[in-house]
Amino acid sequence: MLAREVVEELIQVLGRENVLTEQEDLLTYAYDATAALKHQKPDVVVSPISTEQVAEVVKIAQRHQVPIYPRGSGTNLSGGTVPIQGGIVLSMLNLNKILEFDQDNLTATVQPGVIIQTLNDEAAKHGLIYPPDPGTVTTATMGGSVSECSGGLRGLKYGVTKHYIMGLTIVLANGKVIRWGGKTVKNVTGYDLVALFTGAEGTLGIITEMIVKLIPAPETRKSVLGVFDNLDKAGNAIAAIIRNKIIPATLEIMDNVTIQTVEHFVHAGLPLNAEAVLLCEVDGYKEVVERESVLVERILQEEGAVEVKVAKNDQERDLLWLARRSALPALAQKRPTTVLEDATVPRSKIPDMLKIVRKIADKYNLQIATFGHAGDGNLHPTILTDVRDEDEMKRVHLAVDEIFHGAIALGGTLSGEHGIGVAKMDFLSLEFGEAGVEALKAIKEALDPNYMLNPGKIVRRD
Amino acid sequence: MSVYDSLDSINEELHKCMKCGNCQAVCPIYKETRQEVGVARGKISLAEFILSGEAEMTEGMAERFSLCTTCMACNQNCPCGVRFDKIILAARAEAVRKKGLHPVKKIAFTALKMQRLFDFGMKTGSVFQGVALKHLPHKSDRLARMRFDIGIGTEKVFPMLAKRPLRSELPEVVKVKNPKMRVAFFTGCMINYFYTDIGKAVVEVLTENDIEVVIPRGQGCCGIPASVNGDTVSARALARRNLRAFERLGADALVVACSSGGTAWKHVFMELLENDPEFSTLAKKWSEKSYDISEFLIHKVPFKKEGLGRVDRKVTYHDPCHLNRGQGINKEPREILKSIPGVELIEMKEPGRCCGMAGSFSLVHPDLSVKISDRKIADISQTQTNTVATGCPACRLQLQSGVENAGIQEQVMHTVQILAESYRAGKKGSK
Asked: Which has more confidence, B133 or A104?
């Protein structure tokens, strides 16, 4: 339990209406979107409206040695926002202003509570885009997205969140405020703390303002769908597209289990016996898109696709994407619990990874559907299960273990875009050894020696 | 087992939720409060904690469960197909079983149940309403504001009670020369006591289409205010009363011009009475022949287009949640509007976004209700129209209050009123 005086001090800084202490409210901050994770309610939830208030909260927490768990919309998939040691949940949702659009420098300055889609809508008015587009684009906050370094569908051509963060304002664990980076393209002054804090999951400092890079919106786009009766052929097609110097904005894959589920759900016209479907979208200037889409069509045919469809207009495009967009909803409705992983491998290893996942599914007698971002090697093996079935959940955990091992053995990584949080913490040494874990710990302890900020995530205290 | 009888009935529905938080993107309450308890995911978690025994149904819980306009936008946006509307009803019914009904609501719903007393009260009210309500000068509607604050502020603009309720003013059976059909009209309270103009327009349009209209005197409140607030006992009594009244007079079809009434006749009566040996078949029978007025005029008896006169209006249409998402009716009213000569339909941004009225929600959470309404009114004012059409008297009340307080020149009407206006114009023109 939190000392009464902590709450009183918080109320003094933030006002009573921005400090939640009733059990009925606290319980709703005990979880995030991560499946099958233990929940834990915080002792208090506070909603600051300025960097200064955040700094004051951190100072109070330091004085009383209370952990702080920063939180945006709570949509992450690795337990990144669950307050596993109780304490203070710091809701950033009232810091929700877009502070500036700079069309000359192509930047936007935003507060962490801004929803990604809100930034997109504003950018669109200026003919610009903010490319990172995680599946939660209409709900996730910029602060959460930067802290998790989320990816999305356009990673292959446009990169991920970290490629668009130019400057940050950060409240450190000691309550001091620093500004790093800025609007300049070039900046080598000191260590690259902007890069360090991006994807740090709120364990090193609290982001209260960010300068993000925007780019001109592509003039047009075109989608092509290829159906394969063999996984290797689909894998070769992915490689062939890249080898031919085409970098599609998106290049998605769905495996047979996904295809079957999706087809029964939306009747998009996918053949039920197909082993894989590739969905490719090229974008840019009209002339380039025209040339590249014809090339993609030809490559898919040459690589042995049994069927190739090119969308002739927006309606046909929407129909092609319907299947991909419906993948998660369709799978999620099959069983009550959906465990969504994000093991990532070099894109040349996609067919191998798909085969490994299938073997694991057979071995543990589980329903695993795999879809994902083939172009950047980021797959989403999705285990359909039910948390109430204890025996099955044991098998789920074993299967997840093996998926991690499989990805790393192929030269891949534990997490492409969902983060480590609590869910994958125990597997870190698998990827970069004990020395790597020690290096992480050294960084954590240099910036947050008392383990105050999002403790219990990424790095474990001895 | 129905959602009205036990919290366990929604166990499976709760397990479907994967906590992705997609409901945040569309929840009108969450957009204003940005607190997790405002959104479906938060309240689903609370229900789970209660069921698992980790938390108890407290008065504080009941208060949190009141934070929902039941607009069903989250249902539509949910990748897992969770029916949050069922969850919230079950949670509220559980709250009433464990903690009792809020005293003000208890008085209100008891009054609704005692139809004759309620009717007397409303009629007396129409004489004495000036004591509490200050009449506002308005060119087309009888509007008023509270003279003093009874806990809901004095900003809200209300329609004045009609001098005579609709059902006293019109005969029980409105005959036509060569009737091609006999249709029963369920008026609902708002149309009966406040917006008699909507009721008269319904009768006018139906008779214009050679349909005999029956308005059973024995009908009463639809019971939705009680059922959505967990007062299952009152809701059941009202459902039975209405079924008896309509069964006594009989009809080929039943029409409503109110989205709550439509939901009640189509779905809620059946759910409430599913274990009632006497009334369950009756509820099903009437459910099958219940229509919203716009649905009826498009699909059941296509309204006649000859005789439609010119109505010069720039119209924007607001989709009532329980008509649009609740009954899947959104094309029909637009089709009616587009077929009226002179009407120009201009869509607002997000026409399906909740107006924030939500029945007693606006009384329990007046500030929140106004904030939600303000966004709607801003969208309306951008359309540069002079008329807002909608399909629900409760939405009409909210929108009317909103435009009045914002000082925008918009007349708020039910779609069927504009259609009646067009028939009238047609007759005038042909004379």
From this structure: A104
The answer to whether B19 contacts A25, with C-beta atoms less than 8 Å apart, is: no
| B395 band by pLDDT with thresholds 50, 70 and 90 | very high
- Structural domains for chain B: 7-99 (1.10.1060.10), 313-430 (3.40.50.1860)
Amino acid found at B205:
V
CATH number of A4-91: 3.30.43.10
Q: Which residues of A touch B367 (CB under 8 A)?
A: none
CATH number of A335-452: 3.30.70.2740
Every domain of chain A and the residues it spans: 4-91, 98-216, 220-328, 335-452
Contacts of A16 (CB under 8 A, 6+ apart): none
Question: What six digits make up the tokens of B257?
Answer: 């011009």
Q: A238-241: which pairs have CB atoms within 8 A and are 24 or more residues apart?
A: A238/A278, A238/A347, A238/A350, A238/A374, A238/A375, A239/A347, A239/A348, A240/A299, A240/A302, A240/A303, A241/A280, A241/A296, A241/A299
Indicate the DSSP class of residue B37: G
Closest CA to A277 of A348, A338, A354: A354
Counting beta carbons within 10 angstroms of the beta carbon of residue A315, is it exposed (0 to 12), middle (13 to 18) or buried (19 or more)? exposed
One-letter identity of residue B131: V
CA distance A354 to chain B (A): 25
Contact A96 B34 (CB under 8 A): yes
Over residues A166-174, mean pLDDT: 98
Residue pLDDT, tens place only, B326-379: 999 999 999 999 999 999 999 999 999 999 998 888 888 999 999 999 999 999
Give buried/exposed letters for A281-302 (b at 16+ CB in 10 A, else e): bbbbeeeebeebbebbbebbee
B117/A contact by beta carbon, under 8 A: no
- Contact list in A for residue B58 (CB cut-off 8 A) is 23-24
* CA–CA min distance B171, chain A (Å): 51
Tell me whether residue B167 is exposed, middle or buried, using C-beta atoms within 10 angstroms of its C-beta: 0 to 12, 13 to 18, 19 or more.
Answer: buried
For residue B55, give the nearest of A23, A75, A332 by CB distance: A23
> With bands split at pLDDT 50, 70 and 90, how would you rate the model's confidence at B153?
low
Architecture of the CATH domain A220-328: 2-Layer Sandwich (3.30)
Chain A residues whose CB is inside 8 A of the B16 CB are 333, 336
Centre a 10 Å sphere on the Cβ of residue A78 and count the other Cβ atoms it contains. Answer: 26
B79 neighbourhood in chain A, CB within 8 Å = 328-329, 332-333
Q: Which CATH number fits domain A98-216: 3.60.110.10, 3.30.465.10, 3.40.640.10, 1.20.120.520?
A: 3.30.465.10
Structure tokens at A355: 């085969």
Query: B80 vs A75: CB contact, 8 Å cut-off?
Result: no
Q: Which of B21, B34, B64 sits opposite A33 (nearest CB)?
A: B21
User: Checking DSSP bridges between strand B181-186 and strand A205-213, what pairing results, if any?
Assistant: unpaired
Best B13, B27, B37 member to test A by mutation, with max A CBs in 10 Å, is: B37
User: In the predicted model, what is the mean pLDDT of chain B?
Assistant: 92
Contact flag A24-B37 (C-beta cutoff 8 Å): yes
A220-328 and A335-452 share one fold: yes
> Residues B165-169: what's their mean pLDDT?
95
